[in-house]
Amino acid sequence: MTNERILVVDDEEDLCEILQFNLEQAGYVVDVAYSAEEVLKQNNLDSYQLFMLDVMMGEISGFKLGTMLRKSEATARIPIIYLTAKDTEADKLRGFSIGADDYISKPYSINEVLARVKAVLKRTSQTAAAPVEKTNELIISTDSDVLQYENLKINLNNKTAFIGEQEIGLTKKEFELLTLFLQCKNRVLSREQLLENIWKGESNVLDRTIDVNITRLRKKIKPYDKNLQTKQGYGYIFAEK
Q1: Which CATH number fits domain 5-126: 3.90.180.10, 3.90.226.10, 3.40.30.10, 3.40.50.2300?
Q2: Is residue 138 pLDDT above 80, yes or no?
């Protein structure tokens, strides 16, 4: 039996009940909430070891709730899994930019959910003692498909990037890296986070692969290459001037 406490947040009560039943059968202690507003009224959120959030919920979306949980010192280190029908590449990047630990698209199998919950809890319990960095707002706008820093702009819909009026030719990985950095400005991203978010599920990816892609990206986004900085021993950061 396990003692981990999980909070499931979804405005579909039937799904909450199904998840609660199966997670409890697996040995977890599970509470449910049907809106972000209901979650924010609780004063014991730091007692959970995992949040499982839907995205499309009422006035406060799961993305917004995730951002609020990440910004709170009490809940910043608690892992988040998104379970949602919003399964586009842009949606997943947005979820991971918030700091999500996994992203599961609906419809899903219960066995897959249980396996991923187990994996996330095992992984995060091993790093629970690591220091947590306070973050700034990670998403420019949850309603916008355009991300911009000064004259550097990317469009998530048509996968294009520009400096001023000049389009930049980026590979798929370079575009995904730039998207993540712009959504996470002023936040150091570790190699592990980059591998998890950009190369998720790909085998035999080396640290050198990250270095090569970032070197190429820097060359293509001049003069903003100076914003994309290496933090020795920590990772990379897109720092505002």
Answers
A1: 3.40.50.2300
A2: no
